[in-house]
From TrEMBL:
Compartment(s): Membrane
Protein name: Chloride channel protein
Membrane-topology annotation of the record: Multi-pass membrane protein
Family matches, as SUPFAM superfamilies: CBS-domain pair (SSF54631), Clc chloride channel (SSF81340)
The entry's keywords: CBS domain, Chloride, Chloride channel, Ion channel, Ion transport, Membrane, Transmembrane, Transmembrane helix, Transport
Record field: transmembrane: 25-44, 64-82, 160-185, 197-215, 235-258, 270-290, 321-338, 345-366, 386-407, 414-431
């Protein structure tokens, strides 16, 4: 940053500290973050729509139905951008944000802003079967993180602003401010207190206003409630809840299963080639898998299932409703496959909108089956299409409230609140009791890096081992004599514990001052007795990079020790004391809760 800019920023910061309170400044930043996140979302959508419109006008693709090769081109462009500009492997957008909140104090690399704005439109615009919501949230989060660093705000406030950015991005894309706030609470484990509520609300409103300003009153889905909820349909909504719950489990398992299949392909080029060909084949057989899928959902809501399916190899059989049902069920099955394959092949995108597409197809399938069984039952296919989306969101993301309010807001379907609650809650309960963590959180949870609504676990996750390690302990070589140890280590130390190491700096054991106290003044032992004679095994060892804070706490509790040695890559590093650990825990708890 040029000196002149640094000087201006310094004066601005001084003026802010003098004239604007911390609380007011947070409110101002939340509005700014909401606007910028909304702007990032609008930019993502417009770039993507421009690419899609340009490709649709291309004669070679539209007339010869060669669109199924487009994802390979898009993935190739993303690969080139990542290799020569981004220069590191793309990460899952929301998962990387959650990691930055738990382990990096909310610090996100500024290059994520541009990367999401380039890679996601290239992936989706060229037909990759993923969504734009995750990249929009990631871009907004990177903007808010770097804005927070620019104004020297605390890590806690920076985390709040990242949640505000996610609310602003979601509110802008879906024009659903309430669901945006709830998403931040459910997915980012934010505490919904008055301290966080108002900034989230301001950011959400800012995001919606940004969308209105650039896109007008454009709505994602065209839907009018033609048939209100009837008590006699309750059983069918329960069936839909069970179906979406099972589908959510399938979606999650398929995601991790396909990623596992791609792991042996170490080269990005091979992943791109295999993934691109697989996506192309799926698109040729099932065209609605192309891109995000909003038009597919809209056609189903309007009852145009033929138009929703597009041109397929099975067009001659579409007069048979059971063929239509089979094709729609195929979309339910293969949307998860196409989405994960796109991501595994190197594409950038999110899982939220593919979840909605899968849910809409499944809801429509359930309704069509009920209506065509010949048993005299009749349900609204558009209602089931809508509520199927809520069921999948609730199950896949473990976010039932987000699902209920999002679907209600984006369609104006508040008259369907009861069936939304029935289906979403059943789907969530089935999935939650089967799969502990979501696509966003499983990898982080396995590493112990996941923030949750459990305050104790959240505080332990936020704590950093590096901040607790003390290195002012005098080491003792295992070959030292008692005299050498007393002269070189004990006499120069203020501690009562001494790590014993070998020639490779590996920890051999520890010596306590109490163990040598009675021999310290017996000079006859100085040369004849080795220091290792007084050595004992440490009650526990903390392994740097392996033991998470919860495990470290447990080791102190089980061993009853006040100091435990830390080993990194097989070598002695330092000690952690119980007193410092508990002090750090209390300080982090106060900072986390604000009490």
């Amino acid at each position: 940053m040029p000196t002149q800019n640094k000087s201006f920023l310094k004066r601005l910061l001084i003026w802010r500290y003098k004239h604007i309170s911390e609380k007011t400044f947070i409110y101002i930043l939340s509005v700014v973050v909401g606007l910028l996140a909304g702007l990032a979302s609008v930019t993502l959508k417009n770039i993507t729509y421009f690419i899609e419109a340009s490709l649709e006008r291309g004669i070679i693709f539209s007339s010869n139905q060669l669109y199924f090769i487009l994802p390979i081109i898009g993935l190739t462009l993303v690969y080139l951008y990542v290799k020569f500009v981004h220069k590191e492997r793309l990460k899952h957008a929301v998962s990387s944000i959650l990691f930055s909140l738990s382990k990096k104090k909310g610090i996100i690399d500024r290059k994520q802003i541009l990367t999401q704005l380039v890679a996601a439109p290239l992936t989706v615009g060229f037909g990759g079967s993923v969504g734009l919501l995750g990249p929009a949230v990631a871009s907004g989060a990177a903007i808010s993180s770097n804005l927070g660093r620019l104004f020297h705000i605390s890590a806690k406030t920076r985390s709040l602003l990242i949640a505000c950015a996610s609310a602003g991005a979601i509110a802008s894309i879906f024009q659903s401010p309430i669901a945006a706030i709830i998403f931040a609470v459910e997915v980012f484990s934010m505490d919904l207190t008055m301290i966080s509520m108002l900034p989230l609300l301001l950011a959400s409103i800012s995001g919606v206003l940004t969308s209105y300003f650039f896109l007008g009153n454009e709505v994602l889905f065209t839907f009018n409630i033609s048939r209100a909820f009837a008590v006699k349909d309750t059983l069918f909504y329960i069936v839909l809840g069970v179906g979406t719950g099972v589908a959510s489990i399938y979606f999650t398992k398929m995601y991790f299963g396909i990623l596992q299949l791609f792991k042996p392909l170490k080269s990005p080029k091979y992943r791109l080639l295999v993934g691109g060909l697989a996506i192309g084949i799926m698109l040729y057989m099932i065209p609605p898998l192309y891109g995000e899928g909003f038009s597919f959902i809209n056609n189903l809501l309007l009852g145009n299932h033929i138009q929703a399916l597009g041109k397929t190899p099975f067009d001659a059989f579409l007069d048979n409703i059971w063929v239509v049902i089979a094709l729609l069920f195929g979309i339910t099955i293969f949307k998860a496959v196409a989405m994960t394959t796109t991501l595994a092949a190197g594409g950038a995108g999110g899982i939220f909108i593919p979840t909605m597409v899968m849910g809409s197809a499944l809801g429509n399938v359930v309704a069509k089956v009920i209506n065509n069984l010949g048993l005299g039952f009749s349900v609204s296919e558009s209602n089931f299409t809508l509520i199927g989306m809520a069921g999948l969101i609730a199950g896949v993301l473990h976010a039932p409230l987000t699902a209920i309010f999002l679907i209600a807001e984006i369609t104006g379907g508040y008259g369907l609140f009861v069936p939304l609650m029935i289906t979403a809650s059943i789907s969530y309960l089935i999935t939650k009791n089967t799969i502990d963590y979501t696509i966003y959180t499983r990898e982080l949870a396995e590493r112990g890096d996941l923030l949750t609504h459990n305050k104790d676990k959240a505080v332990l996750t936020l704590m950093q081992l590096d901040d607790l390690i003390e290195m002012n302990f005098k080491k003792v070589d295992q070959h030292m004599t008692l005299g050498e140890m007393l002269h070189e280590s004990v006499a120069k130390s203020t501690r009562n514990i001494f790590p014993v190491v070998d020639s490779q700096e590996a920890l051999v054991g520890i010596i306590l001052l109490d163990d040598i106290r009675e021999f310290m003044f017996d000079t006859t032992l100085y040369k004849s007795t080795k220091a290792i004679t007084f050595m004992q095994k440490p009650p526990e060892i903390i392994f740097y990079g392996q033991d998470k804070m919860q495990a470290i706490m447990q080791k102190f509790q089980d061993s009853g020790a006040w100091n435990l040695p830390v080993v990194k890559d097989g070598k002695y590093l330092g000690f952690v004391s119980k007193s410092k650990l508990l002090t750090a825990y209390r300080r982090e708890l106060i900072n986390f809760t604000g009490n």
